[in-house]
């Protein structure tokens, strides 16, 4: 756990230096009163341990897990030392006791789109990881039920990917043969 | 699937063997008993309608470890936290239980929610919600729309509280733009979302009453909600899907005489919450149907990421309006309503009392509403006033530019969360510097809250399943997006 602890702290420093200007804060339309939201960039190997660290640090709830496909926006700003990859898994943790949020962004390469599941740390990510898998096709290793959730079971492709063919499914009432 | 569909549409017999070319999906294990009878016709229909791995499997085909987690359903708490493993009968034979399918076309599932229930007699053992029937790809659509058009899209997600959706998107866009909002716009937004919270909770009281057989509540709830919708129509032009709260402010100022309208709404609804109290709170029938039904503990609610009235019913005083204030919620007084037992009755009381608290907030808003602009005077974001367009060519061009090209939002990411009637409504917005969102993700509270359903249903009666489902208050438009 001590090794994990050091990884946590390195991740935090990286975010504090590299992203203070990039992140627009907690989202109030008025600036004051809202602390800047912390953003952490662990590697895929560190990811679960970093989250576990936050869990024991008082972040009781994982509010959100979602994916982002950066295929057509490769030049995004990242702190030094973070290698940009095509996909990103974005996790939002919430501490009720401290009224704080932290955002964790993990780079996921295109060729091997796999991340460890957070299920053992936060069982509430069950549906959210399924959604990210369904819409982006990243596999969460260790998730107990990695099936599609929004799209039909036999759907081909992952709709929120940037190279997904929008409009490739003919509209039903134009005499089209079927959904695919 | 398409092949099968095309085949059965043209073939009256529907028998798949008649078409050797047709490639049927592999038969779905564990689902045969769902069909009314044996035979290939039934199997063909089954293959067409099956959701495969998303469905609930028979006990004999489920891995024991999985079953241990799945009893009480997709509850995946670390073992031992919530469920005593010895309490789970892995050896139970399939003969004693059956899996029934409730929905997606069912009047009590509040939309197209499909529940698969494993029953032992009348007792629910496992539940699995199957969602996605209303998925329309709104997050993908958002990538094709400018920020100006964006609120038209998100307002259709949670159709019972459309203004909350618009608010969360607008806050996210404004956070990225880094603009300071004029105070009046914040207060107008607060007024509108609080009225919307009242109307949403009234709708919930109405439908929950209906689910328990209290049909008069159905009528009463809709009656009061109608008053609020009439005010919305007067203000925004539409009863639902308003597109009123936009990045940069609101679409219009409040209409003349709004104070009177709002005061009448407050007085009437406040009076009638007393009537609902009489109708429900003291009634032995209602109490027996709701007390101790669908219980949750605080640990379970936190572990499953449940928010809103579900979390508060377990005794956790978490309301984003209070704990992480946005808009001007730190300048009004209100109480956060908290339950104790986490059962249906607590969730009912929380919603009823939140109506009263919202009215309390609205009354303060009426008093405190400042004068000033209802939208930010930032030429980049705000279109010119209508009268200027008639007299100035530049204003016309400006107007045209804002509505065709939209405005550019600087590169960055932001996560914004607000308290919708159903829980934490979040928006994760990624901007790439153009006038369209690169990625817009909405964290829908009902989508996540549905994860609590299997746990709340576990060991309960089938008759209570409808009521438990109703107290989650899922809006399928937001679950499926």
Task: Describe, in plain words, how this protein is organized in 3D.
The complex is a heterodimer of chains A (180) and B (481). Chain A is α/β, with parallel strands linked by helices and 180 residues long. Chain A has one domain: NADH:ubiquinone oxidoreductase Nqo5 subunit (Beta Polymerase, domain 2, 2-Layer Sandwich). Chain A contains three helices and six strands. A four-stranded mixed beta sheet of chain A has the order 1-4-3-2. In chain A, strands 5-6 form a two-stranded parallel ribbon. In chain A, helix 3 links the parallel strand 5 and strand 6. Chain B is globular and about 80 Å long. In chain B, strand 4 and strand 5 form a beta hairpin. Chain B has 481 residues and is mainly alpha-helical. In chain B, 46% of the residues lie in helices and 10% in strands. In chain B, the strands form three sheets. In chain B, strands 1-2-3 form a three-stranded antiparallel beta sheet.
List the topology elements.
The complex is a heterodimer of chains A (180) and B (481).
Chain A: H1 2-18, E1 38-40, H2 44-56, E2 61-69, E3 87-95, E4 100-108, E5 114-116, H3 126-136, E6 139-141
Parallel strand pairs in A: 1-4, 5-6
Antiparallel strand pairs in A: 2-3, 3-4
Helix pairs in contact in A: 1-2
Chain B: H1 2-10, H2 40-49, H3 64-70, E1 98-102, E2 114-120, E3 123-130, H4 138-142, H5 147-154, H6 162-177, H7 183-211, H8 215-236, E4 245-246, E5 249-250, H9 258-281, H10 284-290, H11 298-303, H12 309-313, H13 320-323, H14 344-368, H15 386-391, H16 393-404, E6 412-420, E7 423-431, E8 437-443, H17 445-449, H18 453-457, H19 462-472, H20 476-480
Antiparallel strand pairs in B: 1-2, 2-3, 4-5, 6-7, 7-8
Helix pairs in contact in B: 5-6, 6-7, 7-8, 7-14, 7-19, 8-9, 9-14
């Amino acid at each position: 756990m001590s090794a994990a602890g050091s990884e946590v702290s390195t991740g935090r420093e990286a975010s504090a230096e590299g992203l203070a200007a990039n992140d627009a804060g907690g989202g109030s339309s008025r600036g004051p009163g809202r602390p800047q939201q912390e953003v952490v960039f662990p590697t895929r190997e560190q990811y679960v341990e970093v989250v576990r660290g936050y869990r024991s640090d008082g972040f009781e709830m994982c509010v959100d897990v979602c994916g982002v496909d950066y295929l057509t926006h490769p030049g995004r700003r990242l702190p030094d030392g973070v290698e940009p990859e095509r996909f990103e898994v974005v996790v939002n943790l919430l501490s009720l006791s401290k009224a704080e949020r932290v955002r964790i962004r993990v780079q996921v390469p295109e060729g091997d789109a796999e991340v460890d599941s957070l299920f053992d740390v936060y069982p509430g990510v069950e549906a959210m990881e399924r959604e990210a898998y369904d819409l982006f096709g990243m596999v969460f290793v260790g998730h107990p039920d990695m099936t599609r959730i929004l799209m039909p079971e036999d759907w081909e492709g992952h709709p929120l990917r940037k190279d997904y063919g929008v409009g490739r499914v003919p509209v039903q009432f134009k005499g089209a043969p079927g959904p695919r | 699937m398409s092949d099968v569909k095309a085949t059965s549409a043209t073939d009256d017999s529907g028998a798949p063997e008649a078409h050797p070319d047709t490639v049927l999906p592999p038969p779905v294990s564990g689902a045969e008993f769902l069909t009314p009878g044996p035979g290939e016709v039934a199997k063909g229909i089954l293959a067409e309608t099956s959701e495969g791995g998303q469905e609930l499997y028979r006990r004999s085909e489920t891995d024991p470890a999985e079953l241990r987690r799945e009893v009480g359903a997709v509850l995946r708490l670390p073992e031992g936290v919530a469920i005593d493993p010895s309490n789970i009968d892995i050896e139970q034979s399939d003969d004693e239980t059956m899996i029934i399918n409730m929905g997606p076309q069912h009047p009590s599932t509040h939309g197209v929610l499909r529940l698969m229930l494993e029953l032992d007699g009348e007792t629910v053992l496992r539940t699995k919600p199957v969602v996605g029937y209303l998925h329309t790809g709104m997050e993908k659509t958002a990538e094709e729309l400018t920020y100006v058009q964006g609120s038209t899209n998100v307002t259709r997600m949670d159709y019972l509280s459309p203004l909350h959706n618009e608010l969360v998107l607008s806050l996210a866009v404004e956070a990225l733009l880094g603009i300071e909002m004029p105070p009046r716009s914040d207060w107008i937004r607060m007024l509108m979302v609080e009225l919307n919270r009242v109307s949403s909770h009234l709708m919930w009281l109405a439908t929950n009453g209906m689910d328990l057989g209290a049909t008069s509540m159905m009528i009463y709830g809709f009656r009061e909600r109608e008053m609020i919708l009439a005010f919305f129509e007067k203000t925004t032009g539409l009863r639902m899907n308003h597109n009123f709260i936009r990045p940069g402010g609101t679409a219009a100022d409040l209409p003349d005489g709004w104070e009177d309208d709002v005061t009448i709404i407050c007085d009437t609804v406040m009076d009638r919450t007393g009537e609902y109290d009489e109708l429900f709170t003291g009634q032995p029938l209602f109490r027996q149907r709701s007390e101790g039904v669908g219980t949750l503990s605080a640990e379970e609610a936190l572990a499953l990421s449940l928010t809103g009235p579900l979390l508060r019913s377990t005794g956790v005083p978490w309301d984003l309006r209070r704990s992480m204030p946005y808009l001007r919620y730190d300048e009004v007084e209100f109480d956060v309503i908290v339950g104790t037992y986490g059962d249906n009755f607590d969730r009912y009381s929380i919603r009823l009392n939140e109506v009263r608290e919202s009215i309390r907030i609205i009354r303060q808003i009426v008093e405190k509403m400042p004068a000033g602009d209802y939208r930010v005077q930032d030429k980049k974001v705000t279109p010119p006033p209508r009268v200027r367009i008639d007299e100035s060519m530049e204003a016309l061009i400006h107007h045209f530019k804002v509505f065709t090209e939209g405005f550019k939002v600087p590169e960055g990411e932001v996560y914004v969360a607000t308290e919708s009637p159903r829980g934490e409504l979040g928006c994760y917005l990624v901007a790439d510097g153009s006038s369209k969102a690169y990625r817009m993700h909405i964290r829908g509270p009902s989508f996540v809250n549905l994860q609590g359903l299997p746990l709340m249903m576990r060991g309960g009666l089938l008759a209570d399943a409808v009521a438990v489902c109703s107290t989650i208050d899922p809006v399928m438009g937001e679950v499926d997006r």
